[in-house]
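ARCHIVE CARD
Drawer: 12
Card no.: 0347
Subject: one protein chain, sequence and derived structure
Cross-reference: see card 0346
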Amino acid sequence: MKEFLHTIRVEHFLLYEILISILIVLAFYILSKIVKFLLNRYISKLVEKTRTEIDDKLLEVSSAPIRNIFLVAGVYFGIKNIEKYHKVFGRVVSYLKYINTLLFLITVLIVVFFSLRVTKIFTQWLLEREEERENKIVKKEFVPIINKVVSVFIYLLAVAVILQHFHKDISSIVVSLGIGSLAIGLAAQDTLANMIAGIFIMIDRPFRIGDRVKLETGEMGDVVDIGLRSTKIATFDHTILIVPNSIMAKSKLTNYCYPDERIKIKITVGVSYGSDPKKVRDTLMEIIKNTDGIVEDPEPAIFFTNMGDFSIDFLIIAWTDDYRNQFSIKCNLLENVYKGLSEKGIEIPFPTQTIYVKNE
């Protein structure tokens, strides 16, 4: 009779604790619904009032992970309630450990995928922000690199956490990865040098896509692409010059777009001896001001620079607000100078030499 009563008490106790565990799971499930309701009803209205859309996107991707975390936590604490009475439940508790391991893996996966989505949102936000600033380098190259690097770091961190949970020594794996990385680095020195130089070019930004540059070797063109390995420059011969980033990083180059797109036009004009310098300067200044494309700031200038063998020389310095028009404006200015001097009766001399023959 005593054994029978004891059995009934044990069975009632088991049912009671199982019911408590089920109620714990239900409580966390209801709590997840409440949190979801609060997020959708109140928090969403707050984030809608902000100027940026990044908080709206973060709220959108946070809803499902929060719900799943609450469900996993409910199952976990429900199992913990049963594990307290391992003497009563016997073998059942040993099987519950496998469920705890599964819950741990599910939690890690939830956090990993949530982190990846958050990373994607932030990189997309950075991409759009830089696009508004018309920064094409960051748009095409730098932001995807950040996304990939952060994603790889998240995956490696997740693997390390899982291995640590199973009491695996990760130091040997790290050493093996270090030796492997060293071997790969030695085998691909040039490629790595170009990649590192490309990253520093994107950070330092000595030039941007669309800038006109002149290399130390004399080549000139417009930058059309900045990659991890090389920079592509469109030359004036309708060809593409591909330069490794390591060379671009350590070579001297001229960027015609810095500090702005204004550029200087210099022309040397020679007039014959006997010309009035003041009249020449006034005539040239009038010609400059009537030439399209020449800006008033900085102000044009004319200098009497040389008395040559057959002419007196003047240097014209003028500015245009767009380096792309430099050649055409210089051509127009030369034509105007030639016509204007001719109309004013100012002679542009030919190279001449006077020979005196001694009569004995």
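Annotation on reverse: Strands lie at 212-215, 220-226, 230-235, 240-244, 253-255, 263-271, 301-307, 312-320. The longest strand covers residues 263-271.
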